[in-house]
Amino acid sequence: MSFTAEIWQENAALFETIRTMPFNQELADGTLSQERFRHYMIQDAHYLIAFGRALAVAAAKADNTDEIVQFAHGAHTAIIVERSLHADFMEQFNVSPATFAATPLSPATHHYSSYLIATAWSASYPVVLAALLPCFWIYAEIGRDILARAAKNNPYDSWISTYAGEEFHAAVRGVIATVDRVASVASAETRRDMHIAYTHAAKLEWMFWDSAYRLEQWPV
What we know:
The protein is mostly helical. 82% of the residues lie in helices and 0% in strands. Pathway: Cofactor biosynthesis; thiamine diphosphate biosynthesis.
């Protein structure tokens, strides 16, 4: 069994919890409130900036030129997607640049962003990749799951298409292959740390969607 097959199997129950959580159920049904989706979009745009930074650090730590290109391109794509959110989704849902700039990171977004950046700087290359993998892989699987059961004329069709599309899934398969490559030559201790990093980030994926559903704000 490959390393990524191991971590997927180990976290299968967590994925099912994410797949069936209220945010994703209502997104598929097309009944998710605009207020909740707007909260999610703003926080996702903030998050993608941090994700891009973490990918750039991963590129700098890569041990071969192909993977430098792979993760540098991933960082570039994360920022392009963040900008497209402003140009498309945020305009559609009446979020002005001033509103975005004035909206702080929610506690969950702050936690997830801080975790990825801290891990990118402090951990070994294999562990960094394991921490980054859930954002790729879980989004891809959730996107295709939602596409398969989405209501017709879903107001969130554009979002669903982005993460269910073949272009995104091809990139995800590339990251999975790289994680398997580095895991195949890693020590048992490093592989253990990769398991921990993946699971922690996967839990933060759940927290991110849950926080949008709850319209999470700082309590004080």
